[in-house]
Write a structure and sequence with these properties.
Oligomer: single chain
Shape: elongated
Number of helices: 5
Largest sheet: 3 strands, mixed
């Protein structure tokens, strides 16, 4: 009976440590894709996350002229841009100056320049893996679920105004090691040494 108990303890200890290697591999990939530790979450200025404007120079809002090709889509995209620029200004990332023609001029603040990256998105945060769990083998790869939280979150990123951009952001920010973080899914190669899914591991653009 004593030998059986020791055997079960050994089994459970192996199960508990079974994903430590995978956890280290995934954490390394997150950190390699985010070496500064402050670009896990990025905020786009456009309707499409791939859209952006040049915020290194003053940006002046404008109206879309009726009759322009794709007029309806451009109006929606322009309104979306104007709303986001106004929110970024309220967060302290941009200066907003009202112009005589009813438009606005935006320039970067010192705070904004600290969080703006070369792709013209405001970014922050570092992903920290809490734990991982093996799910199944699929197409020669192993599927894992993992839980994580963010560190290096600036005060402006926890402002309720971000809910107007995407309410998911502050839900992610609110998670801590104690709440065991938010869940994600990842594929590792069968040797458990290389992440085989996702081109930009650890970065979410909203």
């Amino acid at each position: 009976m004593k030998k059986l108990a020791i055997l079960w303890l050994l089994v459970f200890s192996l199960i508990g440590c079974g994903t430590e290697q995978e956890k280290r591999v995934l954490q390394t990939r997150f950190d390699e894709s985010n070496p500064s530790g402050d670009r896990a979450i990025c905020l786009s200025s456009g309707l499409n996350p791939s859209d952006s404007i040049n915020l290194t120079e003053p940006y002046i809002t404008h109206d879309i002229i009726p009759g322009t090709d794709d007029y309806n889509h451009l109006v929606v995209a322009n309104n979306w841009l104007n709303e986001r620029l106004a929110i970024f200004a309220q967060l302290g990332l941009l200066n907003q100056q009202a112009l005589a023609n009813g438009q606005y001029r935006y320039t970067l603040t010192e705070l904004g320049s600290n969080y703006l990256y070369k792709d013209n998105r405001f970014c922050f945060g570092r992903v920290v893996i809490v734990d991982m769990k093996y799910q199944k083998k699929q197409d020669g790869k192993r599927l894992y679920t993992y839980r994580y939280y963010l560190e290096n979150v600036p005060d402006w990123a926890n402002n309720p105004l971000l809910d107007e951009i995407n309410s998911v952001i502050r839900k992610i920010i609110a998670l801590t090691p104690e709440t065991k973080g938010r869940s994600g899914m990842i594929f590792l190669t069968s040797d458990k040494r290389e992440v085989a899914w996702g081109g930009r591991v650890g970065r979410r653009i909203f």
